[in-house]
Amino acid sequence: MIMDDSTKVIKDVRPNTAASEAGIIPGDRLVSVNGHVIHDIFDYQYECEDTNVEMTVLHADGSEETCLLIKTEDEDPGLVFEDGIMDEYRRCHNKCIFCFIDQMPKGMRDTLYFKDDDSRLSFLQGNYVTLTNMSDEDIDRVIRYNLEPINISFQTTNPKLRCMMMGNRHAGDALKKADRLYEAGIRMNGQIVLCKGINDGEELDRSLKDLSCYIPYLESVSVVPVGLSKHREGLYHLEPFTAADSIEVIRQIEGWQERIYKEHGIHFVHASDEWYLNAGVDIPPADRYDDFLQLENGVGMVRLLIDETEEAMKSLRPDGRSRRFSVATGSLVYPVIKDLTERMKSLFPNIEVMVYPIVNDFFGEHVTVSGLLTGRDICGQLKGKDLGDALYLPESLLRHGTLTLLDDMTTEDIQDALQVPVGIVKSDGASFAALYGENAG
Ligand code: SF4
Questions:
Q1: Which residues line ligand 1 (CB under 6 A)?
Q2: CATH topology for the 101-298 domain
Q3: What is the arithmetic mean of pLDDT over 175-196?
């Protein structure tokens, strides 16, 4: 069977591998492995576990050839495909009332509007899935191939409410798929996007009670506040959480942490950093984060940054080195960065750091995280400011693996606009300390 599928085109063949020795070349298209049609990377990896692998490929001239690859059990055959998952990404079929993609202004790059809901990306990249477009066969495959952990956006365990929040009448039933994953012992992490007056309060209590029944396979649940941009014309009315609301949510979550810890020895449910920063209360100590399972989701990043910076400071010797530079950051984390620069002053009193909080005019004042800042806002707000000998920006505002921000401005564009060298800082304490000069950090 010949598949007309560009996702199976071989982009590269690594030298000195079973595939190169079998004569497979870039441009060939994979047809089957061991006689089985390959749907995606997981089928491929599963079939390639054998020591003798029969690979049928379609050459560019239209001829088909079956090659025998001889390799050891764990050895990769040596093929690199055009597409990482060897299949089209699955789109989501929901219309969530809180979807941030619906709140983005028009005219941005196309990829930013793509709504994925693909369990393979959950496994490969940590994306969150809703389970709404996973068939029973998909669940079978997750179990058969042991694709764990699977990250699940629950929002609520109330089936009716879940249907309403996700604009999908199957969203309530889809929760039963988590039962199957639990019964099969598949590790999971959960997320609840909290919307004021909708899935908070008693509904949140109900969700956390239900989800705690999935312990130990459900290893953590993060609760994150809904992100609200200013581009919500025609969308469901949602209110931002106030500082007082945030204190209430933290109190509720910490109550659950205490109860669950007593019973299971883990804290399990975590309020994202945003709640603590909004509330203006202290970030919990590191041991409350159970090995920081949801760092990528903004849970514990601030605690880690503070602890790592303090650790880096212990190995620094104070001196009189002198320098002036600036740091731009989202307004949410500004007090933390400001505080860390104050502490560093005790070691390097002659280093002056100007920390600038950038207000997100592009998405609106309620979007305060650094990762959603645009080049235009940074340039607009820093023009004419004292930036010292360099301006440092957090790595989180760059598109992965590039020097490009959300609005397609590059760090070079910012450098040209502000007439100052621009550097990028990773979000760890050692990188922050290293801003202070050689041997610092
Ligand atoms: S699952 Fe909901 S929030 Fe996620 S992309 Fe789809 S509509 Fe948006």
A1: 92, 94-96, 99, 101, 115, 117, 130
A2: pyruvate-formate lyase- activating enzyme (3.80.30)
A3: 97
